[in-house]
Amino acid sequence: MSVLSPYRVLDLTTERGLLCGQMLADMGADVIKVEPVGGSPARGVGPFYRDVPHPDRSLYWWAYNRNKRAITLDIERDSGRELLRRLVARADFLIESHNPGYLAERNLGFADLAKINPALIFVSITPFGQDGPKAGYADSDLIIMAAGGPLILAGDEDRPPVRLCIPQAYLHASADAGVAALAAHHERTRSGLGQHVDVAAVQSVAMATQSYILAAPLGSIEARRMSGGVKFGGFEFPLVWPASDGYIAMTFLFGSALGVFTARLMHFVCEQGFCDQATRDKDWIAYGEQLVSGAEPPSEFERVKEIVRKFTRSRTKNELLQIAVERGFLITPVTTIEEVVKSPQFASRDYFQNVAHPELGESFRYPGPFAKFSATPIEYRRRPPTVGEHNSEIYRDELGLSGRDLAELARAGII
Amino acid sequence: MPNELPLKDVRICDFMWVMAGPASTRILADYGATVVRIESPTRVDTARTLQPFFGNQLGPDSSGLFANCNAGKLGISLDLGNPAARAVVHDLVRWADVVTESFSPKAMRAWGYDYESLRTINPTVIMLSSCLMGQTGPLAKIAGFGNMAAAIAGFHNLAGWPDRAPAGVFGAYTDYVAPRFTAMAILAALDHRRRTGEGQYIDQSQAECAIHFLGPAILDYTVNGRVEGRVGNSDAAFAPHGVYPAAGDDQWVAIVCRDDDDWRRLCFAMENQDLARDSRYASAAGRLEHRDAIDASIAAWSRAIERGAIESRLQAHGVPAHQVQGSADAYTDPQFVHRGHFVALPHPGYGKFTVEGPRAKLSRTPATVRRKAPSLGQDNQHVLEDILGYDETRISELVAAGALG
Questions:
Q1: How far is B344 from chain A (nearest CA, A)?
Q2: Which of A299, A334, A369 is the C-terminal boundary of a domain?
Q3: H or E stretch covering B36
Q4: What is each CA distance from A30 to A11, A90, A196, in whole angstroms?
Q5: Among A41, A340, B342, B375, whose CB has the most other CB atoms within 10 angstroms?
Q6: Whether B151 and A249 lie within 8 Å, measured CB to CB
Q7: What average pLDDT does chain A have?
């Protein structure tokens, strides 16, 4: 049994916010993507299957619409809105990501739909929230990452701050929206009432600052960007290190929790002949404070990092990973997407899932279930839907429209 | 019907520590769950040792990261290796709807607190384990932090410049992604239990859930065989799309043109008729081809202007633009202020301690941050006496046995 199978979700999101409905769909909810006639703008976002743009072959669309059904509906027109209201009457959730006010101007806002279905949980995902001085700002992923705090923290010192090149902002917002929707649902099981959930992507991405967004109100200095690490109080702390065949991520930090790992690593580095015992036996727990107080000169810290770099550079990524597994070091390889897909770890957990695309006569590996549920495992029941694939299922079989009604609606461009 | 916190009836026995785990139960605490956070009196929670610190000073309760991940929870110090602690754990598990843990795999089993053992104490308990790579597989026992899971899940390699080493995403990236999946999994499992009476065990790999944030790039490889690499701030479809210098030292503004209209409006706002008239730049394809020249023209204009003024001017013309904000900028940003993003909580040691507020606004039953994060063992008495119903003798015995540290 799927965990959320009793629930119906109408997903009106545009190209932003698609992941929210997919998380619910993966857990079994009946999620119906409601798209404009011709298909969602998300279907125009690349990359595409074999690099040929086609509304049913956007890999961005595929990535975030698995397990959903899809219908087309023109909500710019009265008859389209009427059909949407009929669907709302039997829905448990509605998710949307239009600019604030767009749906309300069409009498489809939360206040309008709550009259039809007081139990409806209406989830809005927007760049800056439903109101406030920047609610009407034009946006994109990069804009949200700039406003919300993560962007300034990453990149090379001598170049502009840099983003992760796969858009992230609306994924963070979608995930927050999903949690909020289920919290509101939990409350609804007591009160029987729905409500409006308002998620601002700019707040969601602030999560990706590791709480450095709090530096100013706490009176802390701010972290500064540095390639493969972080600069703090004038000191450079690398987190990405060179291997002989690429890079690794390694936590080489100090203090009562992390200094223990650094001491363990330095013993090995010494054992392998990269440093003397005096270097090995530095007080790695107090080391950060010694740097700040000046007891440990910056030049000495630079020397230590060079020793560690020589060690990491002497091994391949995989050798370092194996050493880390055996000895409890804080090391993983920096991997390409190809290495991720071919990873024995993910294979041993059957992570990547084959999803059949009968319309193309092929099947493809998708990122697998986001968690393993013992009683209600996530299942990939449906490939991402083609444009209007479930129109007759929903409009004819469920709403009871006749074949002639459907043809009429199609002719009028409503569906 | 009074507007009560949505999760006021949810009880969580929380063994999680550091970042990814505690950040998930923080969300549930905001929505009203009673979260009893178990902390080791001997092995300090790494989050307590990480910046930013209140007043820039390391102290047992000064970490903004720990405060942010644990606000609204009750804290109990319990030495899990102490035999006297066992009865307390069992009583908490009996009390709880949900047990959460984020140790490396096998730790809970070593203590006898694995799911099979705990369900004999509480047959309908929901237990969630969250760790870097999941409970099984050759790398299951890799311990560590979200920067490591981000590297092995492909994130680090996709942030930075193509001609340089990977800059990497900032910090423990999967620790920002995983908590939302954790919280959703718990809420869904609670609904299943409400309907069926059945609890369950959830094995969450922080790397596996985070890979969904790279979905299109994964499919580009599995479908097209293309291995995407880092491309700075470029975008495959939009140009210009970048971060440009503004007046001052290391000041930046992000500017994006999503379509030809944005481009025309940008040229108008820059008062640059030459750019506007240049036919090479009229279409996205042309602008992508000539993006370096366009970037140079924008930078030549932007570097003389204050970043906030660029943001306002471009947004007034409907062009996506925003100054690149650090903490001080965000703290005074009118939109963050309007959203109530920063919440100053009363704190006996520091007066006020600011954390981030709830990230979603619920119209009828809004989330709230009820209290500052607990100091080590702050709520021992309350948890043992009021929640578990222990009398003074029993509590004294635990203290004498050293179970509370």
A1: 9
A2: A334
A3: strand B34-39
A4: 10, 12, 20
A5: A340
A6: yes
A7: 97
As given in the structure block, the two tokens for residue A21 are: 């409905």
Chain A residues in contact with B28 by the CB 8 A cut-off are 183
Tokens of B154: 């492909």
The residues of B assigned a catalytic role are: 175
Q: Are residue B309 and residue B350 in the same domain, yes or no?
A: no
Same domain, A229 and A188: no
The residue among A281, A299, A334 that closes a domain is A334
Give, rounded to a whole angstrom, the gap between the first and last alpha carbons of chain A: 33
Taking an 8 Å cut-off on Cβ atoms, the answer to whether B184 and A171 are in contact is: no
Chain centroid offset of residue B59 CA:
23
Q: What residues make up the domain containing A322?
A: 223-334
3-state SS, residue A353: strand
Q: Which of B135, B177, B136 is nearest to B154 (CA)?
A: B177
> Is the entire prediction scored with pTM above 0.90?
yes
Residue type, A414: I
Residues B254 and B148 grouped into a single domain: no
Residue B158 included in any domain:
yes
Residue of B nearest to A65 (CA): B215
Residue B216 touches chain A, beta carbons under 8 Å:
yes
Beta bridge partners of residue A200, listed in sequence order: A126
Same domain, B73 and B142: yes
Q: Which of A18, A171, A214, A362 to mutate to test the interface with B (most CBs of B within 10 A)?
A: A214
* A299-311: pLDDT as tens digits: 999 999 999 999 9
Residue B333 lies in a domain: no
Range of the domain at B118: 11-213+340-401
* Contact across the interface for A214 and B68, Cβ inside 8 Å: yes
Residue A31 is part of a domain; what is its CATH number? 3.40.50.10540
Contact status of A199 with chain B (Cβ, < 8 Å)? yes
Helix (H) or strand (E) holding B342: strand B342-347
- The answer to whether the CB of B19 falls within 8 A of the CB of B373 is no
* Contact at CB, A351 and B208, closer than 8 angstroms: yes
Chain A with chain B: Cβ pairs closer than 8 A: 551
Rounded to whole angstroms, how far apart are CA atoms B392 and B405? 17
Beta-carbon separation of B173 and A208 below 8 A: yes
DSSP conformation letters of B73-108: -EEEE--TTSTTHHHHHHHHHHH-SEEEE-SPTTHH
- Alpha helices, H only, B225-378: 260-269, 273-277, 284-289, 291-302, 307-316, 327-332, 334-339
Contact flag A338-B227 (C-beta cutoff 8 Å): yes
Summarised one tens digit per residue, pLDDT across range A114-123 is 999 999 999 9
Give pLDDT tens digits for B269-326.
999 999 999 999 999 999 999 999 999 999 999 999 999 999 999 999 999 999 999 9
DSSP per residue, A132-199: STTTT----HHHHHHHHSSGGGSS-TTS----BSS--HHHHHHHHHHHHHHHHHHHHHHH---EEEEE
Cβ atoms of A163 and B324 within 8 Å: the answer is: no
Separation CA B196–CA A373 (nearest Å): 15
ipTM: 0.98
The answer to whether residue A236 sits within a structural domain is yes
User: Would B198 be classed as within a structural domain?
Assistant: yes
Looking at chain B from residue 131 to 190, which residues have their Cβ under 8 Å from any Cβ of chain A?
133-134, 136-145, 147-161, 164-173, 175-177, 179-185, 187-190
